[in-house]
Amino acid sequence: MDEKKKVILRLENICQSYVVQNGVKDAVENVSFEIYDNEFLVILGPGHCGKTVLMNMIAGLEKPVGGRIFLDGEEIHGSDRRIGMVFQSMNLMPWRTVMGNVEFGLELAGVKKAERRAVAQKYIDLVGLQGFENSYPHELSGGMKQRVGIARAYTNNPQILLMDEPFGALDAQTRYAMEEEVLRIWGQEKRTIIFVTNNIEEAVFLADRIVLLSNCPATVKQIYDLNGLPKPRNMTDPEFLRIRSEVSANTDLAL
Amino acid sequence: MNETTNVLTNEQRVKLVQDQKRKLTYQSAMLSIAGILGFLLLWEFLAISGVIEGNKLSDVLQVFRLFITKFVDKKPDGAILPVHIWSSLEVALCGFGLAVLIGIPLGWLMGWYRGFDSFMRPIFEIIRPIPPVSWIPLTIVWLGVGLQAKAFIVFFAAFVPCLINSYTGIRQTKEVLKNVGKTCGASYFTIFWKVGIPSSMTMTFAGIKVAIGNAWATLVAAEMLASSSGLGYMILMGRSYGRVDLVIMGILVIGILGVVISALINLLENLVLGWKKL
């Protein structure tokens, strides 16, 4: 690992449990890892293993039972505008246009209309939605909706972007296209991205590093460094397939 | 002949689709008119043929003539029709307006803030099942038979659906949209304002529509029991004087006004929820 890489986010012994009908269920158990500045980190794990819970804790949407999260060396509590999030499907406000959705964060921050329009437009263009500014979400396809979600997260200018299975609800073709899009966008506007998925192929295609989680309760099973595999990657490349099957063999089956 | 199918130009296609749409609209309008005409014909037949006696059902023209003359004629109930209509509308709008202004924000707040919900819920649950008309005796004692008394009763009729629907609507706000607000750094109140209220609007409008129906129905009941003016009062007087034409005309005016009010609310709804129609 390159020694000069700067750690931007550090998770330290994160735990999360919930009270359920007969006792307490552990969702996340002692998860610790570091994320470097501007890297594309993929959190991979079987379905229902606590990936979303982990994301929500990083985003400050729920409080971990134990453990600490450090951003730029400082401990954070709750939501922080330096951390943005692209949610799973159905995350747009149906009563707002594409522009209205994208500029939402700036509107809340009290940025003046002309200024926030300009910023929002920049990211609408970046995700390739120019011409759809005044469309409403129900007029868009699934892939376009997720583009809006990505533009909205970028517009808040976060240092870290969390993407929680953003392409899970898309059909296979759109999904491949969006994976390439997200790499293109990341190439143009470098941010630290933490991308959650249960799709091994997607993980190997996108990641600089993969954090592989175990079945519930989630623990870090292994961390793969894929920096040796140059991007853009070819999903049929022998090296790609080798890594893919290596990760695959190590992944727990979801029940 | 051995013709190949013509390729349509863009304009031809647009015209075809528009014609089709226009035809459908025209058909449904014609059917609606036929429905009304059919009803009037049946009514006229029943009245004229004597199947129902004249003192129990007046014929259509008689009612229509009365509708016109009642604009200037005060007999037999002491006021011309516009006065009755205005009297009823005034009460309905006061009571209904107050119910909307109080009920909807209260529903939003109860739906959004758990503590406030626990505090208000028991009182509301007791008020909720009380039929609005059962407030009438108490209102007469408190407020007499004037505008305030009737508005008070109408208020209760409209208040409950306003509150329940705005409450349920804001309760159904998607968790993920609240989270979008949170990750944008918004406070709980800002999310209430920017996310909760807009997403409750569909349900809230459903509540307003139920409320206006309730208000109108209760109003007429209130006017029949505790009033000296208004459409309900006019109907009641019609019965006392044995004027069945006046009763029928009054009922129809009440119905038609109800339709007009609903149409106005639909117009407002389209304005607020226009994004759905696009």
Summarize the structure.
The complex is a heterodimer of chains A (255) and B (278). Chain A has eight helices and ten strands.
CATH H-level superfamily title of the largest domain in chain A: P-loop containing nucleotide triphosphate hydrolases
Which secondary-structure class do the elements of chain B indicate?
mainly alpha
Biggest beta sheet attributes of chain B: none
Major sheet details of chain A: 6 strands, mixed
How big is the Rg of chain B?
Answer: 25 Å
The count of helical stretches of chain A stands at: 8
Query: Largest interface, counted with CB-CB under 8 A?
Result: A-B, 29 and 21 residues
Order of helices and strands of chain A: EEEHEEEHHHHEHEHEEH
Mean pLDDT of chain B comes to: 89
From the N-terminal CA to the C-terminal CA of chain A, the straight-line distance is 35 Å
Distance between the termini of chain B: 45 Å
Number of domains of chain B: 2
Strand proportion of chain B, as a percent range, falls in: under 5%
- In which range does the helix fraction of chain B lie? over 70%
Overall number of strands of chain B: 0
What low-confidence regions of chain B span 5 or more consecutive residues with pLDDT below 50?
none
Q: Please report the first level of CATH classification, the CATH class of the largest domain in chain A.
A: Alpha Beta
CATH topology of the largest domain in chain A: Rossmann fold
The dominant shape of chain B is flat
